[in-house]
Specification:
Shape: globular
Strand order of the largest sheet: 5-4-3-2-1-12-13-14
Largest sheet: 8 strands, mixed
CATH superfamily of the largest domain: HAD superfamily/HAD-like
CATH class of the largest domain: Alpha Beta
CATH architecture of the largest domain: 3-Layer(aba) Sandwich
Helix content: 25-40%
CATH topology of the largest domain: Rossmann fold
Distance between the termini: 10 Å
Strand content: 15-25%
Number of strands: 14
Structural class: alpha/beta
Number of domains: 2
Length: 265
């Protein structure tokens, strides 16, 4: 068995554009897991937004969440590792968002907090519900009882392009990551999918050459380059394809299934 650990991005990779995990892809993943390969979802989502996909396939193990900021045990919900952010480092970004009308949320591993929850529109709530999230009202920093792992600014593509351009002019203490057309994440400088996958592989005693990773966006590049085999989806930007060793079909053409059949079955 060449690959003992396989990391799968979720949105734009495992799921099609309707956020559906197709039965054929799920069945192929289960066949690969039955051979003894560990499957780990490696995603920008929160744990409760991705663990249900593991459970639907009858899989345990781990999920790497918040773009690498938190790793969680699927069965016990135990937090295996977190990259915590100092709240003070987020304050300039929060000030910018408030002044410019940019929606943002602040994340602990299991909680997602939004500014003035009672004032956000139904379309924003629908976005959270699509990701199986029930947001909470943002408290004062002193009232947080768990470490903060991520802040996310979100909006339409053009608005996020403007935010990204503005923030690129700043000097950053944090890792600023474009995690999708509609999202910009701010995390601990060492937090990334690649670093989290490396830590998990070391914990499991699995060398990088026995790790496969499949992804589709800029936030996946670190895990594609860490893994012994990095595979980009056909719906990936050119820079992501360039970082990978192979390109599979798109997420709407069951690219994950085809890659697993090619390399693992």
């Amino acid at each position: 068995m060449k690959y003992k650990l396989i990391a799968l991005d979720v949105d734009g990779t495992l799921l099609d554009d309707n956020h559906v995990l197709t039965p054929a892809t799920a069945e192929t993943i289960k066949r690969v897991a039955a051979q003894g390969t560990e499957i780990v979802l490696c995603t920008g989502r929160a744990p409760l937004s991705c663990i249900p996909f593991m459970e639907s396939m009858g899989l345990g193990g781990y999920v790497i969440t918040h773009n690498g900021a938190a790793t969680v045990d699927v069965n016990t919900r135990e937090i295996v590792h977190e990259f915590a952010v100092e709240p003070s480092a987020l304050e300039p970004y929060i000030d910018y968002c408030r002044k410019n009308g940019v929606h943002f949320d602040v994340n602990t591993t299991y909680g997602i907090y939004v500014d003035k929850l009672d004032e956000i529109g139904p379309e924003v709530l629908d976005m959270y519900h699509k990701f199986l999230i029930e947001p909470l009202n943002l408290p004062a920093w002193v009232d947080f009882t768990e470490p903060i792992v991520k802040m996310t600014a979100s909006g339409l593509t053009d608005a996020m392009n403007k935010v990204e351009a503005d923030w690129n002019l700043w000097t950053h203490e944090l890792n600023m990551l474009r995690s999708g057309d509609y999202f910009i994440d701010l995390m601990h400088p060492e937090a990334s999918k690649g670093n989290a996958l490396k830590k998990l592989a070391e914990q499991r005693g699995i060398p990088a050459e026995q790790v496969m990773a499949i992804g589709n966006f800029y936030n996946d590049i670190t895990m594609l380059t860490f893994a012994g085999l990095g595979i980009a989806m056909d719906n990936s930007p050119l820079e992501v394809k360039a970082a990978a060793q192979d390109v599979t079909a798109s997420n709407n053409e069951e690219g994950v299934r085809l890659a697993l059949e090619k390399y693992c079955l």
